[in-house]
Amino acid sequence: MVLRGYVPTSEETLQTLAALRLQSLNSDFSTHAPFPRLEELFPPCVLHARLPAPRHRPPSKHRGARLRAGLLAGGLWRQALAKQQAERDQRLRGRLREEGATTMAAIVEKWKLLQGMGRPEAMAAYLALVREWPGFGSTLFDVDLRASPVAAGPQRLWLGIGAKAVSLYKPGEPEPLDSFCYGRISSFGASDSSTFRLSVEDRDLLFETSQVDEIAQLLNTYLASAGTRRPPRPQEVATSPPDPTVPPRGLCLTAGPWQHRPPLGSFHS
């Protein structure tokens, strides 16, 4: 999940996780240690997000018409466009290599600070960092939320399915946009091979996804598990005054913001 970009956190924390992974794999830093590829340590999507978005500047109407008239006869117009695209791609690849080298250098510097940390300690520190995200343990699916038939277009989201709740995340955001305990889900199922429907109380949510079956199977598993731990019926509840520290049934506890740990030095004694 970390390498696929499904753990939303800062680049600093992602570099720390990569350093801990190296410490776990190779022990202390050494110039002779085998280096995994960067994409095996750090999510590539973060590097791609640093690159500037391509800007399309169509030529003016008159200039473009004159240029096309002069080039189309010999088929040079397509060649010119292909050459421009190849040059842009080459520049982006060069920029990506530079960003990758900078990131790897930062990871190595953090790795050097972990000298003396054993493999179990490095693994425990790695998991402790990742577990700070409230959504840890959920399985995330890329979905497009279709709000309504008249909406402007679907919204790209993460659908997180965990043991206690189903949550909706904006990609890259640590806190959910919304979260539903299983007690609030009235029904779910596939509308067709690429549309998943989730009914939450009086709302119907439609998701476009290629993983309809996987989502349904996981929900079935968690709902079956939750059914074995159903709360007592009203007539079975004791008559003692309610405990003010216990939330009402059917409500999800709201997790606090994901607080990042201090930088790497906190792992090094």
3D architecture notes:
- This is MYO10 protein.
- Strand 5 and strand 6 form a beta hairpin.
- This protein has 269 residues and is of the alpha+beta class.
- Among the domains are: 93 residues, Up-down Bundle (Acyl-CoA Binding Protein), CATH 1.20.80.10; 91 residues, Pleckstrin-homology domain (PH domain)/Phosphotyrosine-binding domain (PTB) (PH-domain like).
- The chain contains six helices and seven strands.
- It has a seven-stranded antiparallel sheet, with helices on one face.
- The longest helix has 37 residues.
- The C terminus is likely disordered.
> Tally of extended strands?
7
| Helix/sheet category | alpha+beta
What percent of residues are in strands?
A: 15-25%
**N-to-C terminal Cα separation, in Å?**
29 Å
The major pleated sheet works out as: 7 strands, antiparallel
Envelope shape: flat
- CATH level 1 class label of the domain at 1-51 and 92-133: Mainly Alpha
Counted by DSSP, the helix tally is 6
Q: Helix share of residues? A: 25-40%
